[in-house]
Amino acid sequence: MADQPHIRETGRRALVTGGGVRVGRSISLALGEAGYRVAIQFRTSQGDASATVRDLKRMGGRPLACRADLAEPEQITAMFEEVDRQFGGIDLLVNNAAIFPHSDPLAVSPSDWDTVFRINARAPFLCAQQAARRMGPGSSIVNIADTGADEAWGGYVPYVASKAAVVSITKGLARAWAPEIRVNAVAPGPVLLPEADSGEEAEREAAKRTVLGRLGTPQDVAQAVLFLDRAPYVTGEVIRVDGGHHLK
After folding, report:
1. Which of 14, 116, 224, 239 is 20 to 30 A from 141 (CA-CA)?
2. Is 159 a catalytic residue?
């Protein structure tokens, strides 16, 4: 990454939850590269968020890092108030933060279930509420769903159920808030494998399950997010970024 500033700001302001690590980091950097002013939410990964902020600053951006526990509604509110103070509003929300616990369905407790849904489904809805109260016409929300939302993943039942909820939230809010605010989702497929399924053999097997014959990258997801924010006649849509996995 060049050390000399080269961003030309568009005036568009974005908040990316979980924006310092993995796919969220790629989304944050792609938005920054495109001239967005980017706020990054993190909970415990302060070092990763700080590194992403430094990279955005090297581009010439003016990013913001916000610590917030998305399981706590009052912290969500405080985060949006801080973004409002620093940015003067918001034009794009990317609901990316999620947890992905592997579990035997017989062993999932009510507390386990609630923990997943607090972060993966309730938090995106509450963030969307807060964003919508501050957004003007032409703004958009992009939720990160998952191709697993309509697949059978026996080891991740609470997770895929929460992502199915994200798809439903996307469509409902798209209808409720049209025409001022567009709401869409990106459903990644085999892009970054979970740590429990990592390794060269797992990657080869995952690649075989796509019609393109390869894994995707976090940058593929980031480009889909950019497309949806720039597509003024698209709302209520869920774009699969899965290399054609759903065609197998």
Report:
1. 116
2. yes
